[in-house]
Structure formats: C-alpha cells, structure tokens
Amino acid sequence: MNDTHPTGRTRRPVSEAAEAVLYRPVEVLDHGSVTLIDYMGDDESIPNAARMSYGRGTRSVSDNEALLRYLIRNKHETPLEMVQAKFHVKLPIFVARQWMRHRNSYNELSARYSVLDREFYIPAPEHLAAQSRTNRQGRAEVLEGEEAARVLDLLKAESARQYASYTDLLAEEDEDRDGLTRELARMCLGTNIYTQFVWSVSARALLNFLHLRADAHAQYEIRAYATAIIDEIATPWLPITMRAFADYLRDAVSLSRQQADLMRALAAHVPDGAIDPADFGLKGRELRELMDKVPGLEAKLKG
Amino acid sequence: MNDTHPTGRTRRPVSEAAEAVLYRPVEVLDHGSVTLIDYMGDDESIPNAARMSYGRGTRSVSDNEALLRYLIRNKHETPLEMVQAKFHVKLPIFVARQWMRHRNSYNELSARYSVLDREFYIPAPEHLAAQSRTNRQGRAEVLEGEEAARVLDLLKAESARQYASYTDLLAEEDEDRDGLTRELARMCLGTNIYTQFVWSVSARALLNFLHLRADAHAQYEIRAYATAIIDEIATPWLPITMRAFADYLRDAVSLSRQQADLMRALAAHVPDGAIDPADFGLKGRELRELMDKVPGLEAKLKG
Amino acid sequence: MNDTHPTGRTRRPVSEAAEAVLYRPVEVLDHGSVTLIDYMGDDESIPNAARMSYGRGTRSVSDNEALLRYLIRNKHETPLEMVQAKFHVKLPIFVARQWMRHRNSYNELSARYSVLDREFYIPAPEHLAAQSRTNRQGRAEVLEGEEAARVLDLLKAESARQYASYTDLLAEEDEDRDGLTRELARMCLGTNIYTQFVWSVSARALLNFLHLRADAHAQYEIRAYATAIIDEIATPWLPITMRAFADYLRDAVSLSRQQADLMRALAAHVPDGAIDPADFGLKGRELRELMDKVPGLEAKLKG
Amino acid sequence: MNDTHPTGRTRRPVSEAAEAVLYRPVEVLDHGSVTLIDYMGDDESIPNAARMSYGRGTRSVSDNEALLRYLIRNKHETPLEMVQAKFHVKLPIFVARQWMRHRNSYNELSARYSVLDREFYIPAPEHLAAQSRTNRQGRAEVLEGEEAARVLDLLKAESARQYASYTDLLAEEDEDRDGLTRELARMCLGTNIYTQFVWSVSARALLNFLHLRADAHAQYEIRAYATAIIDEIATPWLPITMRAFADYLRDAVSLSRQQADLMRALAAHVPDGAIDPADFGLKGRELRELMDKVPGLEAKLKG
Predict the structure, then answer these.
(1) Which of A128, B257, D141, D187 keeps 20 to 30 A from B271, CA to CA?
(2) B69 Cα to chain A: minimum distance (Å)
(3) Structural domain containing residue D278
(4) ipTM surpassing 0.90, yes or no?
(5) What are the binding positions for FAD in this chain (chains A, B, C, D) (predicted)?
C-alpha cells in the first residue's frame, strides 16, 4: 500500500480485511468513489453485544455465527448499532439526494463556501435507458444508435454550458467585475454535478441502506454505490454479517398472510418425505422455525 | 360522554371513531390504562402523503385502500410518519422500561419530584406462569393451588412492605425528623409499582411497537397494552391501516433464502390448476407479486 | 374562506388561529409557498406535558405561560415534542437540500415518477448579492445596473435552456422516438427548479429549524421560508411559545466561560443601585437566575 | 496492563490515551463502573469532517484546535457525529432509567433471561441527603447520626429482604417446586439493584449527555458517572474537544434577550479602556464575537 497513513498499535478489535481497504477509494460511475475511512468493531462485536442483552441465556448459542444469524433472522437489530463505519463518498447530487433520505450523519461539501469542480455524471451508453411507457418506475430498454448518441451529446453539451454559466456568474478570475455570490451561482448547475460527503453510519443503518439501495427497484446509479460497498468493503470487513444479510434480508421473501396461506396449501399436494431439507441447507433451529410457520410440512420432509 | 372536554370546530381531518375514544381510558392490568389524548390525521392522510412522493404517478392507484396496502406491503413506510398520536399510559415500571426502548418521545412522571401512589402490579392468578426449565424465554405452565397462593401472598407482602419502607424513609408526615430525599427513597420500590407517561408517536413507530409488543414472544404484561391499543384505539381510528398491519406485518411470514427455496420446491409436486387463488383472497397486484417470488407457481393456479 | 375543506367537530385542542391559516398557502420567493396542512396541540399542550413529568411538583407554577417560558429558557425541550405540525412546502431544490439536513420526516415529489413543472427560482434584483471577497460565508453588496441585468438574463436563459433540454430528453410528446428515462433526464435541471414536499415535524424540531434558518447567517432563500413560518403560521398558532422562542432562543446570547467572565467584570464598575431590572422586563425567577450567574450584580440593582 | 486483550496493528486514528484506558473499568458508586470498550476517531477527526463541509473555505483556519473550538462555540455539531465511542456501564436501575432517556443505542442485560446478582446500591453516608422542604428538586442537608443510621439500616434490610423474596420466587435451587417465571419474579426488586448495558454513542450525543448529567441539577448518582467519564475517559481521549466543552457548554452562560440587555447596560458605567480582554484569555475571533454581541463594549477595552 502506497498511501501515507501510518500504522499504529491498538487493543481495539481489528479487521485485517477492513484495514486492507481503508483509505482505498472504490471507483463508482464515471468520476465517483466510495472509501472506508474509519470503522469500529467487527463480526464478533455484534454477538458480543447480544450476549450482554441476553446474559447467561446465550451460553447455549456458543457459536458466534449461529447467534449473529439468529439475531438478523429475527430482526433483533440493536446489537448491529454497536458497530460503526465512516465513509467518504463522491457522487452526483441526484444520488446524494436519495442517499440522504437515510437519516444518518453527513458532512457534505457546501457550494456556499467552495467552488465545485467541473465534474458531471454522464451515463455510460449501456445505462442510457428509455422511459418505460407502461411503468413509470423502471427503466425500459437501452437507447441505441443515433438516439443514444443524441442523448449523450445533449447531456455533455448541457453540462459544459452549465459550467460555463457557473464560471461566468462567479467571475472569480475577473478583476473588473463582481461575481454573483457562490450560494446563488451554484443553482444553475444540474444535479449530475459531483458533490462529496463524509457519512457516519451504524452497521444497522448500513444494512438497511444496502437492502433498499442494492435492490433491483433502486435507481441504477445509487445501486452502483450500494453494490460497490457490499462487494468491496462490507463483505471483506463483516463476512458473517453479510452472509446473514444475503440470506435473511436481500434474498429473503416476505409473504402476506394471504400469500403465506396459499403457499402453505401447496404442502397438501406433496408426498410424504418428498423434500430433503438438506438440499436447501436447512437444519436445526432455522428448519424448526419453518416447520412452525407451515403446519403439515414436517411430514413432507425426508428423514 | 360525560367528560368535560369541550367540542370545537376544526377543518383538520377528523376521525369520528377516534373522537369517540378520545380521553377515555382503556383499562389494562390491575391498575393500568392507556388513553388516546390527541391525534393528527386518519387513514386517508397516508396515501395522500404518498401521492405527494409519487406525484402524478399514483393517479392510477385511485383507490386509497389499495395504495395504503401497497405501501405497507412493500415497506414504503415514510408516509406513515405523517400521522401522529399522543397517549397517556399508566403502567408498572418494568413494563415502562421495555416500552421506552422504543426511542419515541416521552414525558414520564418523575419520582424525584412526586411521591408515587401506593399502586403495585400483582398478576392475576391465570398469569402466574412458572419459569420454563427448558427455555429461558417463555413462560411455562401456570402455577396453581398452594404454589400460586404462596407466590401471590409473597408479592403482595413485598409490595406492602416496600411501600411502608418508602413512606418511612420519606417521613413526609413527620414533623420531628427529616425524610430522605425523594430521589433516593424511591429506589426501594419494586418495578411493579405504577408510573405514568405521555407518549407522542408517529403511526410508523406505533405500528412497529404494536408489531413487536403484541407478538406472542413479548412479555404478557406489555402485550396486554399493545393488544388494548390495537383493539380499542388503533383499529377504530385507522381501520384500513390496521387491516394492512394484520395482513402484512402481524400475520406475514418472512422466509430466509433457504426457507423460500424449500417452499418454492413444493410447487413442483402440485398438479396444474390445483390451487384457486380466490380461496386465499388473492388477486391483482398482490397475486402477481407472489408469482414473481415463486417461479412455476402460475401453472398451478386455477383459471 | 373559500376553500373546500369541510369543517368538522372535534374534542381535541383547537387553535382558532391555526384553523384560520390551515390550507392557506403563504407565498415565498417567486413561485414558492409554505402551507400548514395539519397540526396537533397548542400552547397549553406543552406545559400540560411538563406537568406530567414534574407531577405535583409543578402545582406551584400555576401559570401556563410562566411554566412554558421556564421550560424553554432552561432547555427542557421534550414537552415540545408533544406538539406536531404538518406542512406542504414548495421550494427550489437547493433550498430543499438545506432543509432536509434537518432529519425530520419528509415525503417529497419524485422526479423519477413525475415530470417537473417549468418553474425555476430567479432571484428578485434586490437579492442578487455579490460574492464577498473577504468572507466566503456571507453575501456582499447587491449587484446593480448592467451587471445585475446580465446575471438575471443569464439565469433566465439557463433555466429556459435546461427545461428545453429536459423536454427534449424526455420526448414525452414524441411518438416517433423513445425518451430518456425520467430518472436520468431530470439531472440536467439546475437546483433552482421547484420541488415540493410534505414535512411532519414536532414543535421541538420546528423551533430548532426556525432558530437556525431564520438566523442572519442562513442563506436568504431558506430564511425567507423560516421567516414566513414564524410570522404567518407559528406565531398565530403558538403565540406564547413563539414569544419564549424570541426571548430565549432567537435573541438570546450565549457567552463562553471567558466571555461571561469579562461581562461579570463589568459589574465592578457600576455604582450600587444604578440598574433598574424593571427597565429590562426582568423580575422573579428569571431575574434570580441572572443574579446567580453574575456574582455581585444584586448590589447594582435598584430596589 | 495485565488484561488479555491482544494488541493489533491499525491504520485508523489511534489515541494513545484512549488505548491506555480501554477495557479498564472506572469504579463509580459502591458496585458500579464505566468502561471504554471501543472508540472511533480522535480530536482531529472533528475538524477534518468540518473541512469536508466547508471545503476550501476552511483553509484559513489552519489550526485544528481553533476550528474545533469555533464549531462547538457556534453549535455546528454534526462533525461531532463522526467520532464514536462504546462503553460498558454497570449501574443501579434508577440511574439507568435516567440515562436511557438519552435516545442512543443500548444493549442491556435482561432479567427476563438472566438472574440478577445480589448487588444493590446503598448510598455512602455523605450522600444521604434529606428532602428539602422548600424545593422539591434538590437535596437538602445530609442526614446525620441516628437518622442516617436508621435510613442506612432500612435500605440494607429492604435490599436483603427483596433479594430473599426474589430467590424464593425463582426457586431455582428447589427441585420440588416450580419457580415463578424470571420475567415476573424480577419485579419485586428495588431500582437500586445493579444492571448493566453496552452504550454506543457519538461524541455529539456524549457531550450532550455529559452537559446535562454532570450539571449540578442532575441527581448525584448519575452525576458520579458523568464526572467519571469526563475525568477518566473523555478528557484523556479528546483533550481539545473537552476543553471546548468546558468553555462553551459546561461553563457557558446563556442569557435571555432581557438578561442580555441588562448586561449590555452595564457597559455604559465602565470607564473607557478599563477592561483588559487578555485577563480573560480573550482575543481574535472569540473577542470579536463578544464585541458583536455587546455594542459599545469595544471602547471599554484596553489596547
């Protein structure tokens, strides 16, 4: 590692994998990035905090991973607040606007005080989705050929012209005339200009962010950040937590009472012993929890 | 209604059912109660706020109930923050301690300033559960006969003695000696003494509270309060919201990836057309959402 | 009142003044507005909640106003959370970005789903401040004459051109080609385009917002909203609270230990009895609190 | 240090002083303690986050300490959220009840699952305050002699008897009869029994806690914890922040408009040049801020 952050000695929990990614920007979009700049705790911190709550009661769950998975599966999420992270994020304003709906802690660059750099998000051609005519919420097929070129040209020209207007309004280099105050001049810039912030967040709020923003319904651009955090930072740092996140949050299925009733009815058609829970990686407490939810299922299971 | 709160005129949303329960204590446990003392908004306020977010996009969901159910089913919960309630609650301290883990807004009676009344929670005989020897978390069978009588006698004697000690320490009626400061004298009282607070809470936080505290895993005493709020206050006031709460939160089933995979595998054993979704009250968007979650299910459905 | 909101009957606290402004937009900036759309509680709700906390202890403060002022002066702010308001706000995006740093509850119009209207904030000529060359944080003198005209022309031209690009990208009216998805097309619009949101906020958070955003250091545009809320909505609705806000928050002075020591030293130079506290509206508890803070002051006071 | 926490290597900010107190319980009251068990960041993390917000604008405030003091003096507190701490606290329940009014993150030992240890808070004789007969909120003189002995005997006897009842109700050692469930048996214990929790808190919320709970109006017992944190943990770990805390929060004076007006009037009686700001450690920006608050003060200052 060629950065200049010195190594010190600590008696706090250390995650070697988090240390390896610390201060190393993960590139996202055309000019964006997300960087872990500090952290507190690791996978073990979460079951350790839960053992405080449950006291001697958790002796039987001697395995950290089993306890951590139990907590996340059953939405006992306060122990996740015992782990914290701090990120530096560089991103377009329209993505920052979605991000900051999560009421965590932010210190954002202010264009009242600083002149913004000339960096605008221009989508890669493969992300130039058309507006769906049937569904206002998703993207439709990707624009191609002449239409794509036309859109890209227009976006680039807009950004260039906006920045020229911004510079003109500011008149920072002009000795002969006063510029418009920065806090007003900025307002002619599109929300694809890049901003940056420091984000302080607990593991609980982080998982919630990743759950909502790595989801297929989230806009591609913020999904790119969420995916980068999952793959490059959170999974190395908190591998057990992130496996539980995948199984119990990201890939979990929530059924309404009515939907659950229909699914339970399927069981009646299944021959006894036809299903081997081992095929699904199910055993122990998690299998018993399913049998509790689906009366009659037990008979259908093998062994 | 024989209370003295005058009736005024307002252009705010009015819920007749909420007006009917306003200021009327719902009795809980032996000396406890929960009372709605103010509210803001009704069932319509929630889809109205969502329409602000989704703009013209929600015109197609013309039906308030369908939109409200969609929001809750898909955990789009911020519109629920647009509805607020304020409760007066009288409850034992050990229940208040569980309640206040919900980080809402409280103004609690302080025993630093006031002398507490001589009211202690003594469980009804049918709630005198024994400690399970196999599971530390639930109650086992109910104590009966001589053992129950012994426990009740001991609890009553403890409470009486504690209150006598409290009074003795305070020496409020005693002209001849100084009493111990109230803020210290209170500490000899058991957590079954009653306290009270005012609780200000959004509908979002209220549903979360009711979901966790009306659950079978919650301690009986706080469950009694949650159930009273559901039955006597929230359901009359917000009937559509509370039906969605039942279907999508209280009676919903969350399946891990592994559990969902096993349930999906059941479908392969079901003859085509064997399941009629109408038997489960499923149609439209909610049925399509289930078919999206369970590949191959569509063929098994009738019609 | 010619709007169509029907009047109903309620036993909740009613503020006649709040009823009078309900649903009536207060105009702010060139196309903006702020409208009270619901409220819970009034001035009396705050001391009433405090009396719950302090119990019989507050009997001696029989006067609502005195208790309310005591609470705010001494930063006992939780009773303010017992009063809630809901606003509809229409405002430029750059103002919304400052506003939403206050981590309250919002439902904002989403340009992912809706096409934004052609409304941009263009400052009135008297607010076209130049950038101070000595202080990055405030505005300097107002631009005038040719320079002002040039800036206004540029801002108007930018907005017109941006909206033309937006429309072109969307191609909503064009049968022959696909438009760019709304969630991307929006990003070429400057942050002076108008958005809108519903804002649910407690009186505590509202006072904090007004304190920071009506302050002379806040940017003029958000100050215009804060001032409109104070003058047209909050003061009529909560007159006693807002007088306390002015005296103890807006116009209060916080002195560091060092600054306070210097101010205390002034007293040594003042002849005994030279200062009449009545000239400053000071008496009773608030005067005693000042004497506690400034040793030796008592002798300097008349009477 | 003879504890067994291994030392690792990290590139995160390290505070040597925090490392020295890590995992080392600071004793409070008769059986209580507070222990720093993890931390994130140090004094420099706060101005660094502020520099992100203010961007190039803060180049002029090159000195970390000056910027940190400016932030705290002017209540720009979000950068304080970039620093986090985690504590283990052992304390009587009545103190925990006050502590948890601060809506931070807690994992508390639950007496539903664990049997509590036989540890009760019994005040030291010098803290056995009498109840003031004139002011319900503070303690009066200390009880002495026979009265003190009587109170101590009563408190000790109560605690012993309560724990005997608790043990009797639980019947954990008794093979012949069922015990009452733990979640009910606990309720006969007074709130002077010890509990424990893990507390995760940002530096912003920590300073707010310390400001309110180290204050002379706070109950002695929680003040003992706040003072221990200030002296033994926070000051070594964050020395610059805690000096600013003392000057701008703990020892600051807030004056209402009326109080401020009276204090300003004192200046008229002071001869020109009579006050030397250096005597009060005032210069530069902080002195100018005071002159802005007190018109006419400048003439009274020396030099």
Answers:
(1) B257
(2) 11
(3) 257-300
(4) yes
(5) 78, 101-103, 108, 208
